[in-house]
């Protein structure tokens, strides 16, 4: 029907150029609004009179709440109409940006008629200048109008690949629902305790009974606001989930601007009417970044082509950064300054004229092109997966900022137990840092004492070991244990988590670990060559082995490369064998599983072309011994490659990451695997692992060449996501 009406398009990122129905966002918007209209009687059912002849109990009926609901639906209807007009007439960006302001007029008028509050509580750091509360007056209405404009257009700007628009809307809607659940009431028969381990405290909040949700603290008004938000978000999740099935790669339908308009307006509605617009903006971190990055092109400083979507290469089936060219007219001084600044921080890729350095080409300023500049060309499906992973990670960080950074959180009076626990969690992280520093200082002193004795070997602080006159010790997380006991303790940890290992990795990293592993294997690609013999150490579940074999088969039709998976834990190997039974490599010589100790390999020397270890080397009793064994079993020219958690280089990210690691990960282990202690160890073991520079030195000490002066810049190691994880490489000469 849409194709017959001329609402069709072609997928620029596909080899085939079939007509694909466009503007299917109209179907989503119509279904969504119909559900909201059908739902109108239910929130107000308790106000219906007992006698059908009496109609509504007019004296008690909350006309204000009904007017808010109806004005919200009216704004969504207007957004749908304006979005569809944009699809049909292809309105230019300069006229498109203010359109959502028109759709927000019903919201703003009802807000004004009901004497909506325009006071804003000032964040703590600025109270010395602005006081505790400031009345913005008309400026607040301007802010709400701008919020609707931003929420609508920010999703529309970050588009152009299959599944991009609807996946953003779906993740943001789920985040809003998760936020609402913290405030909602529960029936008196449904009670549980909300653990604040997530925030680092020991206290718990009882949740259960009407108006008793933990974060609402007995406020009926707060509960009603978030119930209103849920009324609008739940059907939006349902509609987006259904549409995502059809819009996912390879897309069979396109959403058009209509979907962007209606989803953006839905977020503006709940942010304004439920009074959590600042929290809502935290869920738009990728969109805010993309908008700020796009401003030079949106406002004419840098030329803006009609389409800024990534460029498709039909021969390789990969997406590359799309570009804007300056061959006919050189960029202005301001444009040159902006582009060179963005290039310096890695947000755009420049091509310059060799003779005078003039910019002749630059990648377009969008977050999708940034992904391609920073991570390299990739298939369209991988690009949208990267976008989804970024959106999920940013929304997790949004919760950490909103509820975990007490020093920036707006204070309420009286202070709640939750705020007290938030501050306690920050103090707890600082205590961990002090404890770590004191332990390191203590071990340095033991090492220096040991080296003075004639009959005692020197300890190695880099591997987390120290020596005494009687026994050698090492670290098991933050605990100091005899070295000969650590192997059994580590075995116990991974025996406990083996059955839920992949589930917990997904929960802890929101699936990002899969992207890291994909990138790890891709970076090791030696190009077309003969079959390789690979050893994957601490690889019990077979994640890396499977990726190596798939990469060799998919890129080079290689069916001769073999991978031997070695792990000290039989339970992890059991999980790996179970996984490979479902693959084409089962019962083939391409993969085998070996139980063994990485520090005492019972394998011949000079045998393997590639030695990999992913998220495992930090659990070695002696990292130095493990590296020496890796060097021994590799052939000359063989490559050692390690993917491991590392030291976060950005101070703000480090603070948020530490808070998440020590609070959320053990809690997730407790909930999903019923094993808090094992996941507490996993977090602590990450903190005990040497930083990038020190680990690179240890690799060189084992006999590998690591790239020398190029460390941190593609030589010895490559940081992932600000140093949360790093890829280390070394070559046996």
Automatic annotation (TrEMBL):
Q: Does the keyword Acetylation apply?
A: no
Biased composition of type Low complexity is found at: 448-474
What is the protein's major site of localization? endoplasmic reticulum
Instruction: Mention one GO biological process in which this protein takes part, according to its record.
Output: methylation
Reaction(s) catalysed by this chain, per the record, are: a di-trans,poly-cis-dolichyl phosphate + UDP-N-acetyl-alpha-D-glucosamine = an N-acetyl-alpha-D-glucosaminyl-diphospho-di-trans,poly-cis-dolichol + UMP; a 2-methoxy-6-(all-trans-polyprenyl)benzene-1,4-diol + S-adenosyl-L-methionine = a 5-methoxy-2-methyl-3-(all-trans-polyprenyl)benzene-1,4-diol + S-adenosyl-L-homocysteine + H(+)
One cellular-component annotation, GO? endoplasmic reticulum membrane
What job does the chain carry out?
Answer: UDP-N-acetylglucosamine--dolichyl-phosphate N-acetylglucosaminephosphotransferase that operates in the biosynthetic pathway of dolichol-linked oligosaccharides, the glycan precursors employed in protein asparagine (N)-glycosylation. The assembly of dolichol-linked oligosaccharides begins on the cytosolic side of the endoplasmic reticulum membrane and finishes in its lumen. The sequential addition of sugars to dolichol pyrophosphate produces dolichol-linked oligosaccharides containing fourteen sugars, including two GlcNAcs, nine mannoses and three glucoses.
What is the official name of this protein in its record?
2-methoxy-6-polyprenyl-1,4-benzoquinol methylase, mitochondrial
| Organism placement in taxonomy | Eukaryota, Fungi, Dikarya, Basidiomycota, Agaricomycotina
């Amino acid at each position: 029907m849409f194709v017959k009406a001329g609402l069709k398009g072609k997928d620029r990122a596909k080899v085939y150029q079939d007509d694909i129905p466009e503007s299917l966002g109209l179907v989503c918007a119509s279904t969504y609004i119909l559900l909201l209209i059908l739902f109108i009687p239910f929130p107000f059912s308790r106000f219906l009179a007992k006698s059908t002849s009496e109609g509504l109990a007019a004296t008690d009926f909350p006309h204000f709440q009904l007017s808010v609901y109806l004005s919200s639906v009216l704004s969504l209807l207007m957004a749908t109409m304006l979005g569809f007009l944009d699809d049909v007439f292809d309105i230019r960006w300069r006229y498109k940006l203010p359109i959502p302001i028109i759709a927000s007029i019903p919201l703003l008028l009802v807000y004004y008629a009901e004497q909506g509050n325009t006071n804003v509580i000032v964040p703590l750091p600025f109270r010395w200048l602005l006081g505790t509360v400031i009345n913005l007056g008309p400026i607040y209405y301007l802010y709400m109008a701008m919020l609707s404009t931003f929420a609508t257009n920010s999703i529309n700007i970050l588009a152009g690949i299959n599944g991009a628009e609807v996946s953003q809307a779906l993740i943001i809607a789920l985040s809003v629902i998760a936020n609402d659940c913290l405030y909602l009431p529960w029936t008196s028969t449904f009670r549980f305790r909300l653990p604040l381990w997530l925030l680092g405290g020991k206290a718990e909040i009882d949740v259960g009974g009407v108006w008793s949700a933990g974060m609402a603290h007995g406020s009926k008004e707060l509960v009603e606001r978030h119930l209103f938000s849920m009324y609008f978000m739940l059907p939006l999740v349902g509609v987006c989930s259904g549409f995502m099935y059809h819009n996912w790669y390879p897309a069979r339908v396109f959403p058009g601007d209509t979907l962007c308009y209606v989803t953006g307006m839905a977020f503006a509605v709940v942010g304004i009417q439920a009074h959590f617009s600042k929290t809502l903006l935290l869920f738009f971190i990728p969109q805010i970044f993309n908008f700020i990055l796009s401003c030079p092109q949106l406002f004419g400083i840098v030329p803006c082509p009609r389409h800024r979507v990534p460029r498709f290469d039909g021969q390789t089936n990969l997406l590359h950064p799309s570009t804007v060219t300056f061959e006919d007219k050189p960029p202005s001084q301001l444009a040159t300054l902006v582009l060179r600044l963005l290039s310096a921080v890695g947000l755009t890729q420049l091509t310059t004229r060799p003779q005078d350095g003039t910019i002749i080409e630059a990648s377009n300023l969008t977050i999708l092109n940034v992904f391609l500049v920073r991570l390299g060309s990739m298939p369209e499906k991988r690009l949208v997966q990267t976008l989804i992973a970024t959106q999920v990670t940013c929304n997790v960080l949004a919760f950490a900022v909103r509820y975990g950074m007490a020093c920036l959180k707006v204070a309420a009076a009286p202070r709640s137990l939750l705020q007290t626990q938030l501050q306690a969690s920050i103090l707890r992280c600082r205590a961990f840092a002090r404890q770590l520093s004191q332990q390191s200082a203590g071990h340095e002193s033991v090492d220096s004492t040991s080296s003075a004795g004639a009959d005692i070997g020197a300890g190695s602080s880099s591997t987390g070991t120290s020596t005494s006159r009687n026994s050698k010790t090492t670290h098991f997380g933050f605990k100091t244990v005899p070295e000969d006991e650590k192997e059994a303790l580590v075995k116990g940890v991974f025996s406990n988590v083996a059955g839920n290992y992949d589930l917990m990795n997904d929960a802890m990293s929101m699936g990002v670990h899969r992207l890291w592993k994909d990138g790890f294997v891709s970076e090791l690609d030696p190009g077309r060559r003969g079959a390789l013999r690979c050893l994957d150490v601490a690889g019990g579940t077979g994640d890396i082995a499977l990726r190596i074999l798939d990469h060799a088969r998919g890129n080079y039709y290689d069916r001769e490369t073999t991978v031997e998976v070695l792990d000290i834990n039989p339970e992890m190997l059991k999980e790996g064998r179970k996984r490979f039974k479902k693959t084409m490599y089962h019962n083939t010589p391409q993969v085998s599983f070996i139980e063994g100790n990485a520090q005492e390999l019972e394998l011949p020397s000079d045998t393997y072309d590639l030695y990999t270890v992913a998220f495992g080397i930090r659990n070695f009793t002696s990292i130095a011994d493990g590296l020496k064994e890796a060097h021994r079993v590799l052939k000359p020219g063989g490559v050692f490659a390690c993917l491991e958690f590392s030291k976060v280089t950005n101070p703000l990210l480090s603070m948020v990451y530490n808070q998440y690691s020590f609070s959320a990960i053990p809690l997730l282990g407790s909930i999903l695997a019923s094993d808090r202690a094992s996941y507490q160890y996993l977090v602590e073991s990450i903190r005990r692992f040497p930083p990038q520079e020190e680990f690179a030195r240890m690799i060189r000490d084992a006999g590998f060449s690591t790239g020398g002066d190029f460390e941190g810049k593609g030589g010895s190691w490559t940081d992932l996501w600000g140093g949360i994880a790093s890829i280390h490489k070394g070559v046996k000469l």
